[in-house]
Amino acid sequence: MTNEINSRLQDILEDAGQSLNNAGSLEALNEIRVRVLGKKGRLTEVLKSMKDVAPEERPAFGQLVNDARKAIETRLDEIRAELERKLLEEKLAQEVIDVTLPGKKINTGHKHPNTIALEELERIFIGMGYEVVSGPEIEYDLYNFEKLNIPADHPAKDEQDTFYINKEIVLRTQTSPCQARVMEKGKLPIRMISPGRVFRSDEVDATHSPSFHQIEGLVVDKHITFADLKGTLEEFAKELFGEDTKTKFRPHHFPFTEPSAEMDVSCFKCHGKGCRFCKGEGWIEILGCGMVHPHVFEMCGIDPEEYQGFAFGVGLERIALLKYEIDDMRLLYENDIRFLETF
Ligand code: DAH
Questions:
Q1: What pTM was computed for the model?
Q2: How many angstroms does the Cα of residue 51 sit away from the middle of ligand 1?
Q3: CATH number, span 113-340
């Protein structure tokens, strides 16, 4: 009995050993395990013949089968470990990263120079306690002109090359109508800026476009004087162009302010000596401003005896062109990525 068992076990061990040596995959290993050690496996078959063995031989028989099972299991584990190691190596070899390859460029969006300039401007005025207000791009003639002291027969109306939608509605030619809209609401005092798109039927060239942007400013309170206007706008110019920037106010005319002025800043390229940038002037004009006209106050329901105010209007593109030393406004609208990426 023992001899027969012994040779059967030997046979199983040899067969298992050989199959294991040839197993090339984890699936094959599993098949061998089922075939040899499984419920219907060859070793289990041997164990079932226990009943035919004399009782005194059973312990030794059991021991033999157990030893064989252990030997096969140990070998199985060894081969599995070996296979797993090989598979991992192959996987790593496939996934190898060539760190010398050039990286992929990630294209992130970035801000348009107009937006950068606008945010800078807003930051300055918000810092001085101003509110940012927006108004409609399609506007009533009433707000764009009438309430700003520009009546129907006023030459300023022709000057602004207006796009008319109908007799009463226009594409706003300036952000100034926001002044009238905010004043009409009657919440005083007012300290606001209003940035936005404006439209004029101009031909496109290096300094003109049918659509551009302005930033309107308005302060209304008791005891506001031209000194407040000057102080505020000087501070603004210094923040925007540098602490050593000088300002100059030249008398001008706007229908909705009295007195009116244009503000120049000393050329930040040549510091006033005169250069190509400032066309030899040493000064660069950057905005229009003035004290709110009493007529405008009256038309917007504010008593000019009690309240005073100042207003200003800045061209956003002009500021962007100056700040970034761009000499052609068209560059701001063409959206050429190569140009925009330089900001
Ligand atoms: N709206 C004027 C324009 O488009 C600019 C301007 C000048 C606005 C003087 C103002 C101001 O508020 O006070 O030319």
A1: 0.72
A2: 112
A3: 3.30.930.10
